[in-house]
């Protein structure tokens, strides 16, 4: 048995209309004792609108489009103002749509609104939110490195400064807003998977927040980060976090049924081609496909998407989702904690695949939370 008492549990923050429900849900998450709320930063969602139809998902009756998101900083600020304890994480934003100085100012502002409960989750960006909007996605890792340098500098000094980078050139720039708590700026958690990004997480991060990693891969990449941090003589507190998708039900057959609904299979297409290869399958979008750098759902027609959905094998679904009742989820969390996990965001996606299971699935989440709280 693994001690889970120090594991922090988070939930997705509310990011959809209606507004009244968003604030109510934020208060509920806080009252239930979750440690964090994590907010996505999207223009576009992960599902092609070509399949957002009632025959594919009942959600099409409730929501006009799969590309519906509140703006990140606005909803984080609103939720911060109506909560007391829960931490608020951007999961994640990037410095392509948001200038590094604006990011520094935005998250210092959120730091004040929340009373020091905000975490800046930052990554290199997803092409679906960049390319369709006329922005340049190339050099995204280099842009992130420079952005991190700028943000760190701003948070240390209120004096005017200049920066002569490849992507960002600042001259006599200044931002004098200071953290809500003196000398304690918001932590930065970096979304990293590849070698260069793992190095950035080690060099600049107070934490690491990837997604869709099985325990063994999570542990391996965390070891890489720790080795880099040792070489860099980093001694700051570092949080190993993770965002995972869940389908929750005490009946495993029900979990399998929901995993095999068209919408659940469509989300599993996000698993990169390299992961499909590990199970002996070819990704329908190509051998080099990686959703972060290649997937623009708006450019996939209905026929192409449905054909791809039909090719998703059970092994890929099993890898994409954490499934089961509270006992099963607890065992899976124990596996992650063995590899070094400190904080997990559990996205209970059950209701997306069967609306009638929404209430019971959150009952499972309450049991998991109660067990960890001891």
Explain briefly what this protein structure is.
With 374 residues, this protein is an alpha/beta fold. It contains 16 helices and 11 strands. The protein has helices at residues 19-32, 59-62, 72-81, 100-114, 140-156, 195-204, 215-231, 252-259, 262-268, 273-278, 291-294, 302-309, 314-320, 326-338, 350-353, 358-373; strands spanning 8-12, 36-39, 87-90, 118-122, 161-164, 169-173, 188-190, 207-208, 239-248, 321-324, 343-348.
Topology:
Elements: E1 8-12, H1 19-32, E2 36-39, H2 59-62, H3 72-81, E3 87-90, H4 100-114, E4 118-122, H5 140-156, E5 161-164, E6 169-173, E7 188-190, H6 195-204, E8 207-208, H7 215-231, E9 239-248, H8 252-259, H9 262-268, H10 273-278, H11 291-294, H12 302-309, H13 314-320, E10 321-324, H14 326-338, E11 343-348, H15 350-353, H16 358-373
Parallel strand pairs: 1-2, 1-11, 2-3, 3-4, 4-7, 7-8, 8-9, 9-10, 9-11
Antiparallel strand pairs: 5-6
